[in-house]
Amino acid sequence: MDLNADVGESYGRWQVGDDDAMLALVTSANVACGFHAGDALTLRRTCAVAVSRGVAIGAQVSYRDLAGFGRRFVDMPAAELTAEVLYQLGALDGIARAAGGGVGYLKPHGALYHAVNRHEEQARAVVEAVLAYGGLPVLGLPGSLFLTLAAEAGLPTVGEGYADRAYLDDGSLVPRGEPGAVLADPAAAAAQAVRLAAAGEVRSLCVHGDSVGAAEIAAAVRAALVDAGMTVAAFA
Length: 236
Prior knowledge:
By secondary structure, this protein is an alpha/beta fold. The protein has a single domain, classed as Glycoside hydrolase/deacetylase (TIM Barrel). 39% of the residues lie in helices and 15% in strands. It is globular.
C-alpha cells in the first residue's frame, strides 16, 4: 500500500507543514507546482529530500489560485486548463530531474481534484495534458469520472483514499467547511486507513501535509498498515 502526502506547499516566508518529517514517513510525495502553493526554492528543496529518501515524486497540479490555496473552482476553457497543467508538469519535472529524480505521477489538488470527478470538460483537459506529456499514472477518487476517462485514454490509474478526511455515504469527501470533515485524531485516521486499504479499492492513502499534527497522523497510519500485515511501498 502506498502512503502519500501533499508537500512543498510553503511559499516564501510562509511555512506550511513539516515536509522533512513527512518525507521520512511517506512513500510518495504530491509536490505542489507553484500554482496553489510552493515557490521555486521550496520545490527544489522538497524534490531533493524526496530523491535522497527514495520517495516517489508526483505533480500536484492545481488551478492558478495562490490566494485560495487552490481550493476555489475556476471556470476556464479546456485548452487553457490543459496548457496550465502542462506548464506545472514541465516545471516540477525539470526541478525533480535536476535533483536526480523525476515526476512519476500526477494528482489534481483541491478544487481541481473535486471538479474533475464531475466536470467532464475539465477532466478531459487534465487527461489531455498528461497524454501530451507522454503519459503518467494518475491518482484520483475510485470510480470517479476522472479515473474512468484516464483509463479509457490508456493511462494507468490509481485509486486513492484519505486517511484524514471524513467520507459521505456516496463515497465523496465531506466538504471542508462542515464539522468533522478533517480527522485530527491519529488513531481515528489510522483505523480509517486500514479499513480503506482492506476494502481493496485503493492503492494509495493520503495524509494532508498542511494539517495540524500531520506527521503524527502519518506515523500512526504507517504503523497501523504494517501491523495489519501490509507492505508500505510506492505504487510507482
